Q: What sequence folds into this?
């Protein structure tokens, strides 16, 4: 007999998620299944596959995150905002707590029903915390470049861990001009990043605004990456390019990032979208949309 699992298809600024509620029964879906379902050719398609489980630490939920390549990762800011919205709608409260493998994140409503703020916690800057494969005293700019020595295409990134490792390359021109589709995979897998890294190119417009393009570890080019936006905003302040509150433009839309001075916590605010509910047959991974209102 077929085993059917319901899911929700959501996105945060075009950053796509398949969300499965596994608080009562956890479906047996391995890396191969995640890859098949994450593909837009064989499944609903997503950047991250999200499983909601009971929290061992007393949060409202434990959020397990797998990238489209099937690998489990530590954090996803946009997914946290989407899950926070689901929990707030479920409980009727104005806030929610979401546990991940790197700790508990707090989500809260931000005015409109689709707008959610998540406290992403405190960024890490130590080379061993990012991590890097060799010591760097100052992670605001490390020695790494792509292209000729005397005229590199990308060079001297800032690096930071915001739940997962990020490298941000500062560019003066349009972020579309730097071949991130080609250079992203090489940089993600560079030997300096033992756990691989999310790679961004960032163009700063003024003290409160920047544009970002992201190659996401285990995903590829993405329309939005919340932790990358947080990493870029924090790094921009560290190198003196921006203030602590920044509007970050991504291909899928805008995020407001504030690196709070009082406690160094990062607050990320942006929109969420619930696209549709669906059902997966775990025997053959076929799937279908459910009629509106039919989700359990």
A:
């Amino acid at each position: 007999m077929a085993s059917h699992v319901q899911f929700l298809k959501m996105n945060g600024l075009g950053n796509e998620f398949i969300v499965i509620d596994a608080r009562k029964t956890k479906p047996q879906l391995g890396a191969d299944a995640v890859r098949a379902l994450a593909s837009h050719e064989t499944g609903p398609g997503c950047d991250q596959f999200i499983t909601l489980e009971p929290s061992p630490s007393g949060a409202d939920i434990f959020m397990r995150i797998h990238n489209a390549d099937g690998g489990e990762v530590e954090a996803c800011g946009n997914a946290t905002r989407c899950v926070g919205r689901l929990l707030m709608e479920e409980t009727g409260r104005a806030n929610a707590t979401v546990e991940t493998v790197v700790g508990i994140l707090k989500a809260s409503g931000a005015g409109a029903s689709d707008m959610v703020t998540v406290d992403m916690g405190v960024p890490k800057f130590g080379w061993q915390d990012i991590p890097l494969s060799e010591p760097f005293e100052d992670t605001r700019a490390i020695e790494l470049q792509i292209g000729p020595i005397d005229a590199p295409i990308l060079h001297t990134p800032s690096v930071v861990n915001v739940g997962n490792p990020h490298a941000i390359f500062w560019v003066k021109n349009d972020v579309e001009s730097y071949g991130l589709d080609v250079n992203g995979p090489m940089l993600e897998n560079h030997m300096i990043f033992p756990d691989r890294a999310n790679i961004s190119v960032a163009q700063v417009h003024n003290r409160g605004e920047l544009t970002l393009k992201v190659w996401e570890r285990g995903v590829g080019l993405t329309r939005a990456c919340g932790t990358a936006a947080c990493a870029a905003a924090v790094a921009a302040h560290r190198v003196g390019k921006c203030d602590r509150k920044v509007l970050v433009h991504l291909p899928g839309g805008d995020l407001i990032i504030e690196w709070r001075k009082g406690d160094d916590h990062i607050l990320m605010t942006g929109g969420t979208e619930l696209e549709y509910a669906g059902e997966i047959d775990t025997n053959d991974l076929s799937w279908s949309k459910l009629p509106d209102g039919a989700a359990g």
